[in-house]
Amino acid sequence: MPKPLILVTSASGKTGLQVSLQLRQQGFPVRAFVRRHDHRSRLLEEAGAELFVGNQYSLSDMRRAMHGVQRAYQCAPTAPNGLHFNAVFAAAAYEAGVEHVVTLSQWLSSVDHPSLFTREVFISDILIAMRPEMTVTTINVGWFADNYLMVLDMAAHLGIFAMPLGDGTVKKNAPPSNADIASVAVGALMDPASHAGKTYRPTGPDLLSPNDIAAAMGRVLGRKVKYQNISENMMLKALKALPPDNYSEAAVSQLKIYADEYRRGTFAVNAPTQDVQKTGGRVPEDFESILRRAVSKRADLKPGFIRTLKAVTGFLKILITSAPNPSAIEASKDFVQLATPEFCQESQFWQHSHRPESPVQIADAAA
Ligand SMILES: NC(=O)c1ccc[n+]([C@@H]2O[C@H](COP(=O)([O-])OP(=O)(O)OC[C@H]3O[C@@H](n4cnc5c(N)ncnc54)[C@H](OP(=O)(O)O)[C@@H]3O)[C@@H](O)[C@H]2O)c1
Questions:
Q1: Which positions ≥6 away from 132 have C-beta within 8 Å?
Q2: 132 pLDDT band (50/70/90 cuts)?
Q3: Which residues line ligand 1 (CB under 6 A)?
Q4: How far, in whole angstroms, is CA 251 from its chain's centroid?
Q5: Listed residue (107, 164, 110, 125) closest to 341, CA to CA
Q6: In this predicted structure, which of 172-176, 207-211, 333-337 has the lowest mean pLDDT?
């Protein structure tokens, strides 16, 4: 019997690319939804994936992408109108009669969360799971290891690991690699019967403190790297100073809330998990190996006067950038606000759903 055709959305993204490549390694036909031709789409084609170039906000595009598809990996980009991405996907999957979906949700996903993006993820999870003939596996992943790679330049050239993560000594995250997150999705896509209705929380093998992360950077980069607990304002300035196609203004306003959850220790609740091993079938990669791989691909991280000068200039650019105001951004974009939002650890539902022994399914949230 031929293997089912699997649609992978956000296929040039961090997890989508890995999901596509791993599925191809397992011999599954893959249709990779990307928004442009570039080096990543070439990689997908070389691996034997069929490319679909389109816009994930467009129902017409998603309908065409869904033609003949039996299973799908749905990853909504971190961009405005996340609910729209997922509504378009759910409608097209319904019409195409898709049998199984793995959806990339969030560790933080909870009903009254202060982040509109996160509330939209929570509603999306319900929406995607509403069609009884289609089974769903949900991946509630936390803070990716990849997020720390964004500040590697400064670590390599200035010896500083700067993020607003609070006390440097407290172990607050077990960061998973993109490939390990993808392995859990691939495990569920290959064998829907065993993973239907399940929620997984892939993590790396160890809980790490910000000081542990700085020390790992130091070992890999071959220099002393010190953790600097910066203010939220400084993080917002740095995010604004990044190239404009990195994060939208709307997304930046939400990243501040995610950093707050980090400091509250939310990503450490019942972490690490065994999900990469059990569902992904592999030993989760430790942070230092993830770093080593990333650094080996970046000649620009090697020491050098010009590179240090560039890092200093980048740092000065951050300093003179005016900090965006998240409340003003939310107001200007008509973000729906709640009177009494709840961070994850204030939410009874979230607390219950993160107990390792009794993960609550989405449908139970309404009960
Ligand atoms: N990062 C974290 O720590 C974290 C933690 C928990 C959950 N998550 C969840 O992870 C998800 C993001 O996953 P990811 O990091 O694998 O994705 P990603 O790397 O952000 O990739 C998103 C991809 O979608 C593409 N894209 C953006 N807008 C598009 C559009 N309108 N039409 C078609 N393609 C479009 C982008 O294309 P280009 O690259 O060509 O621009 C990009 O390749 C989010 O839903 C977020 O909630 C992330």
A1: none
A2: very high
A3: 10, 12-16, 35-36, 55-57, 75-79, 104, 106-107, 121, 141-144, 147
A4: 13
A5: 110
A6: 333-337
- Of 292 and 330, the structure prediction assigns the larger pLDDT to 292
Identify which of 278, 262, 264 has the alpha carbon closest to the alpha carbon of residue 175: 262
Residues listed for the chain:
367
133, burial (CB in 10 Å: exposed 0-12, middle 13-18, buried 19+): exposed
Which run of H or of E encompasses 136? strand 135-141
The C-alpha atoms of residue 135 and residue 132 are separated, in whole angstroms, by 7
Nearest-angstrom CA–CA distance, 171 and 217:
16
Structure tokens at 298: 């970046």
User: Peptide bond preceding 272: is omega within 30 degrees of 0, i.e. cis?
Assistant: yes
Nearest CA to ligand 1 atom 34: 35
50 Cα to the center of ligand 1, angstroms:
19
Structure tokens at 62: 């998603």
- Amino acid at site 103: T
Ligand 1 probe mutation, 17, 19, 20, 35, most atoms within 8 A of CB: 35
This prediction has a pTM of 0.95
Q: Going by C-beta distance under 8 Å and a sequence separation of 6 or more, which residues neighbour residue 146?
A: 14, 177, 178
- DSSP class of 357: T
